[in-house]
Design goal:
Pfam families: tRNA-synt_1c, tRNA-synt_1c_C, tRNA-synt_1c_C2, tRNA_synt_1c_R1, tRNA_synt_1c_R2. With 805 residues, the protein is of the alpha/beta class. It contains 25 helices and 28 strands. The two termini are 60 Å apart.
C-alpha cells in the first residue's frame, strides 16, 4: 500500500467578535420565528400547534409559503376554514412544485372542503408531469359543483325509504351512519354537515322523538362460538407459498390489490415517492425493459445464516412476485468482504431452495462494482458527494459534527476519490459521503470506505467498497426492481433511497416497509449466536435449539410448516413477536399428514411373554398412517421378548392410572394381543429390571383400559430431546434478564437418550427423514447418523405442553 496521504488543508474562520456575530444571527432567527408564529396562529392554529409546526423545518417553510401566497388574494386576514385547508395542504403535499397551483384554488374558494382537498392532492400525486390538465383536475376535485338543499333532501329521502322497514323496527338503535354513507355516495361533493342535518330531520319526522325504550342500551348479542373443526380437514399447509384450506393463503394475501401496492410503472402514485422532470421518461424506459412485469428481490448479506425472520422476507419477496406472475432475484449484498464466507452463500441458497423457491437469477452487488464506481464519480461531478476525513467514531450517532470538508471543490474530491481507489489512504482516513439528511436526522451517509480485504469474487481489484445506503437502491435500479420490500428498520433510509436514484437521474424503484417477524424465547442476531457458539451453549449455527433456518431443518421442521406459519402471521406493517408454540402447531399440522408412524421406546423395560403363541416371531402389519390405511403398511417383528416404556408400568399405580399394573392388563398396539402381569423381576437395588407376563387375544376377553406401544428385536439409537434454549420470553431484555442473555440459558434444553430402542422399519432412514414415534412425538433423522447408529432429534411433541401456551 502506498504511503498515507496527509489531509488537505482546511481553513477555519476565527474572528475575535464571533460571539457578537452569532448573537446577531440568533436575534434575526428569533424574530423570524415570532413572525411565523403569528402567521400560523392567524390561520387558526393553536399556539401549541403552531410552535410544534415550527420545529418541523420543511413543514413550516411550506406552510409559510402557502399562507403568504393566500394573503395576496385574501388580504392579511385568513378565515379559520381556509387556514385549516392551507395547513392540510402544506402538511400533505409531497411535490412543492404544485403548492402555488393548489393554494390559488383554496384562496379563491374553488376548493373549500377537506374532501375536495384530498381529491386535489391525489390528482397532483398521480399526475406529476407538466402541464396539469385544469379541466380534468377541476372535474376530479368537484370544482364548481353546486349541491342544492333539494338534492340533499331527495337523496336522504331515497336512502331512508330503502331502509324504512328496518328503521321502524330498530328505531334509534339503527346505524344512522349507514344512511349518511349512502347519501354521501350519491352526492360526493355535498357538505357533510348539511347531509347529517337532513338525515336527523327526516329520521325525527319518521320516528318521532326518542322514547325511554330508545334510550335504553342495546343488549349485547353473544356471538355463537363456531363448532370445533377437525384440524385434519382445516389445515392451511403452504407449499411454495400456495395453501390448501379455508383460510387466506399467503398467495391470496399477496395477489393483486390485496396490499394496495402500485402497479409496475406507476411508482409515482406511491405516497412519498419523489418525482423529477426525468421520472416519467425513466418509467417509460423501465416498462419497455420489463414489459410491466412485477420484479422483487431478496437481498441477504452473506455474513451469517438465515433465521425465522428471513423466512417471512423470503415468502414475502418471492411470494409477491409469484402471486402476481412476476420474478424475484436472489441478490447477495456482498459489500463487506471482512465478514463474508463461502459457507454463508451456500447455506442461503440452500435455504431459499428448501423453502420451495427458485430465484429468477442469482446476482451479487459485486456484479455492479464498476457501474457503482462510475456513478459515484458522477455524483461528485454533480456536487452531491465529497471526500471526507472524519474518523469512524466521529461519524457515529445522529448528532455528529458537520464535516469541515463538505464544501470542498469538486475537482479536489475527484482527485481524492481516485486516490482512495488506488490505495493511497489507510482504512478510516477517507470516505466518500453523500450530501443529504436522512429521515432519522443522520447527515451525509457514507457511500464508500477503504478496506484492504480481498473480496471473495473480485479478489484484490478493489480496496474501496460501497455501503448499503449507496449500493442497495442502485442495484435495485439496475435490476429494474418494481417493489423493493424491506423491514421497518430501513424506513429511515427511504429518503436516501429516492434521493440517490434521482440525484443520478436513474430509474427509481419504490421501497415498501413491513414489520419484522420475531419469536419469544429466541435470539437471532448473528453476533449473539456467535457468542452462544463460543460459550459452548450451542454446537453451531444449525443447533436445533436455535431459530436459524438450518437449525429448524435439522430439528425436523418441514419447510411447508414454516411457509404456513408465515402465511398465518401475514404481511403486517407492525413488528410481530410470536410465541414458538404457534410455529410448532404449524409443524404438527404438516407432520400429522406426512410423517409415517413407527414405534420407539426411550426408557426401555424388558417384558417376557411366557406363553407366546408361536414358536417364532410373528410379522405384524402396522399402518403408516392409522387414520388412512390407503397410505400403506410397514412390517415389524413381534416376539416373546418386547420392550415397553418404563413409565407404562407401575407396581403401585395412582388413581386413574390405566396402563400395566397388578391386576390391570394392557393391549399391545397393532398386535391384537393383551398382556397381563405375572411377575416383576427386581435387581439387587430393588428396582424392577424385567416383567414376566402372559398374553391372550384382545377379542378373547374384556377390552383393556389402554393400548401401549412396544418394540421387539429393535435397533438401538440415540435420541435428542430439545426444550427452549432460554428461560425467559425476552432473553435480550435487560429488565427481564439483568445478567444478559447468556445468563438465561435453560440447563434442561437438551437431553440425550443414548440407548433408545426403535423398531426396525426405520433401518434405512436417511438424514432429515421424519417419523411420528407413536405416543411420543415427531422425530427427524439427524445428519450425525451413521451406518448402524441412527440419531433422532425430537421435532415437537404430539401435543402442546399447556405450560408453554
Amino acid at each position: 500500500m502506498a504511503a498515507s496521504l496527509s489531509y488537505w488543508s482546511v481553513g477555519y474562520c476565527q474572528c475575535a467578535d464571533w460571539p457578537q456575530s452569532f448573537l446577531s444571527v440568533s436575534g434575526v432567527l428569533a424574530m423570524a420565528a415570532l413572525d411565523s408564529l403569528s402567521l400560523f396562529t392567524g390561520l387558526g392554529l393553536s399556539e401549541h400547534k403552531a410552535r410544534e409546526t415550527l420545529k418541523n423545518t420543511a413543514l413550516s417553510a411550506q406552510l409559510r409559503e402557502a399562507a403568504t401566497q393566500a394573503q395576496q388574494t385574501l388580504g392579511s386576514t385568513i378565515d379559520k376554514a381556509t387556514g385549516t385547508l392551507l395547513y392540510g395542504l402544506a402538511s400533505r403535499l409531497k411535490d412543492p412544485r404544485r403548492l402555488s397551483f393548489l393554494v390559488s384554488y383554496v384562496a379563491n374558494k374553488k376548493i373549500h372542503t377537506e374532501l375536495q382537498l384530498s381529491a386535489a392532492l391525489e390528482y397532483v400525486r398521480s399526475h406529476p408531469l407538466d402541464p396539469i390538465n385544469t379541466e380534468e383536475f377541476e372535474q376530479e376535485c368537484g370544482v364548481g359543483v353546486m349541491v342544492t338543499p333539494e338534492q340533499i333532501e331527495e337523496a336522504v329521502e331515497t336512502t331512508i325509504n330503502r331502509h324504512r322497514p328496518q328503521l321502524l323496527e330498530e328505531r334509534y338503535r339503527f346505524n344512522m351512519g349507514l344512511l349518511m354513507g349512502e347519501a354521501r355516495a350519491v352526492l360526493k361533493w355535498a357538505d357533510g354537515k348539511m347531509i347529517k342535518h337532513e338525515v336527523d330531520m327526516q329520521v325525527l319526522h319518521l320516528l318521532g322523538p326518542k322514547t325511554e325504550t330508545d334510550l335504553e342500551k342495546k343488549p349485547k348479542v353473544s356471538k355463537a362460538r363456531p363448532e370445533e373443526k377437525d384440524q385434519r380437514t382445516t389445515k392451511d399447509v403452504v407449499e411454495n407459498g400456495e395453501a390448501a384450506g379455508q383460510t387466506l393463503s399467503l398467495m391470496e394475501q399477496l395477489r393483486g390489490e390485496a396490499l394496495k401496492f402500485h402497479k409496475p410503472g406507476e411508482n409515482y402514485k406511491t405516497p412519498g415517492y419523489v418525482t423529477t422532470p426525468h421520472t416519467m421518461e425513466l418509467l417509460k424506459q423501465h416498462l419497455e425493459i420489463t414489459g410491466g412485469q412485477v420484479r422483487t428481490r431478496f437481498p441477504p448479506e452473506p455474513n451469517g445464516i438465515l433465521h425465522i425472520g428471513h423466512a417471512k422476507a423470503i415468502n414475502f419477496n418471492f411470494g409477491y412476485a409469484k402471486a402476481n406472475n412476476g420474478i424475484c432475484f436472489l441478490r447477495f449484498d456482498d459489500t463487506n468482504p471482512e465478514k463474508e464466507e463461502a459457507k454463508f452463500f451456500t447455506a442461503i441458497c440452500d435455504m431459499v431452495a428448501w423453502l420451495g423457491y427458485t430465484p429468477y437469477k442469482v446476482t451479487y452487488a459485486s456484479d455492479y462494482f464498476d457501474q457503482l464506481y462510475a456513478w459515484a464519480v458522477e455524483l461528485i461531478h454533480r456536487g452531491q458527494a465529497y471526500v471526507c476525513h472524519q474518523r469512524g467514531e466521529e461519524l457515529k450517532g445522529h448528532n455528529s459534527l458537520p464535516s469541515p470538508w463538505r464544501d470542498r471543490p469538486i475537482e479536489e474530491s475527484l482527485l481524492l476519490f481516485e486516490a482512495m481507489r488506488k490505495g493511497k489512504f489507510a482504512e478510516g482516513e477517507a470516505t466518500l459521503r453523500m450530501k443529504l439528511v436522512m429521515e432519522d436526522g443522520k447527515m451525509d451517509p457514507v457511500a464508500y470506505r477503504v478496506k484492504y480485504t480481498p473480496h471473495h469474487r473480485t479478489g484484490d481489484t478493489w480496496c474501496i467498497y460501497p455501503t448499503y445506503d449507496y449500493t442497495h437502491c442502485l442495484c435495485d435500479s439496475i435490476e429494474h426492481i418494481t417493489h423493493s420490500l424491506c423491514t421497518k428498520e430501513f424506513q429511515a433510509r427511504r429518503s436516501s433511497y429516492f434521493w440517490l436514484c434521482n440525484a443520478l437521474d436513474v430509474y427509481c424503484p419504490v421501497q415498501w416497509e413491513y414489520g419484522r417477524l420475531n419469536l419469544h424465547y429466541a435470539v437471532v442476531s448473528k453476533r449473539k449466536i456467535l457468542q452462544l457458539v463460543a460459550a459452548g451453549a450451542v454446537r453451531d449455527w444449525d443447533d436445533p435449539r436455535l431459530f436459524t433456518l438450518t437449525a429448524l431443518r435439522r430439528r425436523g421442521f418441514p419447510p411447508e410448516a414454516i411457509n404456513n406459519f408465515c402465511a398465518r402471521v401475514g404481511v403486517t406493517v407492525a413488528q410481530t413477536t410470536m410465541e414458538p408454540h404457534l410455529l410448532e402447531a404449524c409443524v404438527r399440522d404438516v407432520l400429522n399428514d406426512t410423517a409415517p408412524r413407527a414405534m420407539a421406546v426411550l426408557e426401555p423395560l424388558q417384558v417376557i411373554i411366557t406363553n407366546f403363541p408361536s414358536a417364532k416371531s410373528l410379522d405384524i402389519q402396522v399402518p403408516n398412517f392409522p387414520a388412512d390405511e390407503t397410505k400403506g403398511f410397514h412390517q415389524v417383528p413381534f416376539g416373546p421378548i418386547v420392550f415397553i416404556e418404563r413409565t407404562d408400568f407401575k407396581e403401585e399405580p395412582e388413581p386413574g392410572y390405566k396402563r400395566l399394573a397388578w391386576g390391570q392388563p394392557v393391549g399391545l398396539r397393532h398386535t391384537g394381543y393383551v398382556i397381563e402381569l405375572q411377575h416383576a423381576v427386581k435387581g439387587p437395588s430393588g428396582c424392577v429390571e424385567s416383567l414376566e407376563v402372559t398374553c391372550r387375544r384382545a377379542d378373547a376377553g374384556e377390552k383393556p383400559k389402554a393400548f401401549i406401544h412396544w418394540v421387539s428385536q429393535p435397533l438401538t439409537c440415540e435420541v435428542r430431546l430439545y426444550e427452549r434454549l432460554f428461560q425467559h420470553k425476552n432473553p435480550e431484555d435487560p429488565a427481564e434478564v439483568p445478567g444478559g442473555f447468556l445468563s438465561d440459558l435453560n440447563p434442561a434444553s437438551l437431553q440425550v437418550v443414548e440407548s433408545a430402542l426403535v423398531d426396525c422399519s426405520v433401518a434405512l432412514a436417511k438424514p432429515f427423514d421424519k417419523f411420528q414415534f407413536e405416543r411420543l412425538g415427531y422425530f427427524s433423522v439427524d445428519p450425525d447418523s451413521c451406518q448402524g447408529q441412527l440419531v433422532f432429534n425430537r421435532t415437537v411433541t404430539l401435543k402442546e405442553d399447556p405450560g408453554k401456551v
